[in-house]
Each structure stands twice: as C-alpha cells, then as structure tokens.
Design brief:
The protein is mostly helical. Among the domains are: about 1-130, Tetratricopeptide repeat domain (Serine Threonine Protein Phosphatase 5, Tetratricopeptide repeat, Alpha Horseshoe); about 240-350, 2-Layer Sandwich (Zincin-like). It is about 65% helix and about 5% strand. The protein has 18 helices and three strands. Strands 1-3-2 form a three-stranded mixed beta sheet. Helix 1 runs antiparallel to helix 2 (about 20-35). It is globular and about 70 Å long.
C-alpha cells in the first residue's frame, strides 16, 4: 500500500510539473518525502521541482546528494549528468558519468527504472539506454571525440532504428569527421522518419553552409526554427564591412596580455574553413569551427618572429550568434583561445589565467 501510494504521488507530481503547477508539485513532493524521502524516484522528483522553481544550484546539490546516497542507481547517474549539461554545459563532469552508464549497459546491467509490469519495464529500459547513448554521442562530440560519438550513435540506432535522433547523432558525428556526403545521407534518413525534426533541419543547414549553398542553408535553418524556436535562432547575417567593425570591437575587449600578443598575429577572415585543412588534424576539426590557429609563420624563410595566422570564419560565426553583441563576445572568446595556443597555453592554462 505504501509503495503504491508513493508511486501515485510521484506520478501526480510529474503531472503537476507538466501542467506548470509548481505549488502542487511541491506539496506532493513533501508528502512523498514523508513516506520515503530516500527513494531514488523521490530524490529525482525533488531535483525536478527545484529546477521548476529556478533553484538550479540547489537542484544540482540535490542531484549530487542523491548520487552519494544511491551510487549504484543508474537513473540518478543519468539525471545528474543531464542536469550538469543542461544547467552548466559541464561536459568534463558529465562525460565520466555517462561513460560509466554506457559501460554498465554494455555489460548487461539493467537500469533501475520503475514500471507497472515486465513488458513496460523492458520498454522503459530500452528508452533509458537510448537516452544514455544519444546523450553520450552529444557529449563525445562536444569533447572533440567525433569517432567516439559515431560509435555511440550506432549503438543508439541498434536500440531503436525508427528514432530520428539516432540518425541525427550519426550525421553530426560524420559532419565533425568531415565525411560530408555520409552526413547528408543520414540527415535525409532522419527527416524521412520525422519531417519536423528540428535538429535534422539545423544540421542540414550546417551541411549546406559548408558546401557554399547559403540559400538552401537559410531555408533549412528557417524550418528548424519553425519546429523549435526555443533552441534554434536565426543566424546573425552581417556584411564584410560590418564584420570588420565587430572584429575591431572584439579585439578592443581582449585582456592586455592577449592584446600584446596580437601584435605578432595576422587575423584572416574567410567565409568558411577549408575542409582539406580541417582533415589535417587527427581527429579532423569540425566544419562548424569559428576559428583556427595556424602555427606556421607567414614567411618562414624570413626567420623567427614572423607573424602567425588566426583564421576567423564569418559564416560559422553568423550561425553561432543571434545578435551583434553575441558575435563580439564569440570573436573575443575565439581570439582568446587561439592566441592562447600561440602562447603555448592549453585549456587548463587558459582557465587558470582567466582567459577561457
């Protein structure tokens, strides 16, 4: 009776959250906590209620406490990982959690999902595994591991061949690997499965951009925005002359140590990266790159001290930004990182010097 009542309270609370009835959800949470405050589902409900109340830091703390109390709970591990990604974009902390979940799933461990019967539990377990592998594909891609992202996407597709997001994940990994024709084919498969898949249309726009078909790209971006205007925004299109002014404003915002190093750097603005240049790295650099540091001096025969080059890619910057202010910030961040590489700094060095 107690467990049945607890399940009902959790279900009712989630319905209240879905209907934007935060006070009702909080009341139901409090009642569920009185029945069993340590139950994993109750701890996760607390996280969801805190998020709805815009208490993000408290939600992360609650998820971490739930993880400490239930270190073997797979549903708690996944919720903490997704929360770190959604709230903080913290790939470094989220990836180990997801890698651990993927390892356990590959070994045949069953997730601790709740269900009314065995058939429902089996379906819930597949849905859980699908979310893990799709999220892991995104995280590996964000962590500059496109080959690992491709592997995760392939696992997701084996779990549910009809889910368009598996095809999107595979297309994104292929795109980052500069395998553009294969990526184009996967995007088409995703759209065939769901013509309103915003992620597929956005990636189709990315592919059209790197191929130089900007009219087709804008049409695809518009479709993506029409299906999910919260996550996707119109690219901030800008003329070459106006871009030069934005670049000047971005350079003016650079810290003194970086501004000084810029005297020995030539900033070259191009519409798009050269795919063949991207392929020279291992793994390849993504065609969505907004900037690139070229360590080779402009005139190597002239001896040391010659300027090196930083490339900025205007079309990719346009896609990454929705306003002029965002573009100034994005260029500043890009120059910080690329000049940091010129100075021999890695990502940890950049963070420690406040240049990230």
């Amino acid at each position: 009776m107690g467990m049945s009542r607890l399940t009902d309270l959790i279900d009712e609370a989630h319905e209240a959250l879905y209907d934007n009835r935060a006070k009702d959800a909080r009341r139901l949470l409090d009642e569920a906590r009185r029945l069993d405050g340590r139950h994993p589902e109750v701890r996760l409900l607390e996280v969801d209620v805190l998020i709805t109340e815009d208490l993000v830091d408290e939600a992360i703390a609650a998820a971490e406490e739930a993880r400490d109390d239930h270190p073997k709970s797979m549903i708690v591990g996944l919720r903490l990982a997704t929360l770190l990604l959604d709230a903080l974009d913290d790939v470094a902390e989220a990836r180990p959690l997801l890698e651990d979940l993927a390892r356990r799933l590959k070994k045949g461990e069953a997730p601790d999902v709740a269900a009314d019967d065995e058939e429902s539990k089996k379906d819930a377990a597949i849905d859980f595994a699908l979310e893990v592998w799709l999220t892991l594909a995104d995280v590996r891609g964000a962590d500059h591991d496109p080959q690992g992202a491709l592997v995760a996407a392939d696992v997701a597709i084996t779990l549910d061949k009809d889910d368009p997001m598996g095809r999107v994940a595979r297309a994104a990994a292929l795109f980052d690997l500069c395998r553009l024709e294969e990526a184009t084919a996967e995007v088409a498969k995703a759209i065939d499965k769901d013509s309103r898949c915003a992620d597929a249309w956005w990636l189709r726009g990315r592919l059209a951009t790197i191929k130089g078909d900007h009219e087709a790209a804008d049409k695809a971006f518009t479709r993506a925005i029409s299906y999910d205007g919260e996550r996707f925004q119109e690219p901030f299109r800008i003329s070459e002359d106006e871009f030069a002014k934005v670049l000047e404003a971005a350079i003016a915002e650079l810290p003194e140590v970086v501004a000084g190093a810029m005297k020995n750097v030539s900033v070259i603005v191009e519409d798009l990266p050269d795919v063949e240049m991207l392929k020279k790295s291992d793994p390849p650099l993504s065609p969505s790159a907004v900037g690139l540091f070229d360590p080779e001096p402009l005139a190597p025969a002239a001896g040391p001290g010659q300027p090196v080059r930083i490339f900025l890619y205007r079309k990719n910057l346009e896609i990454s930004c929705a306003t002029r202010e965002e573009m100034v910030d994005e260029i500043s961040v890009t120059l910080l990182h690329e000049v940091g590489h010129h100075l021999g700094l890695d990502e940890e060095d950049l963070d420690s010097r406040g240049l990230s």
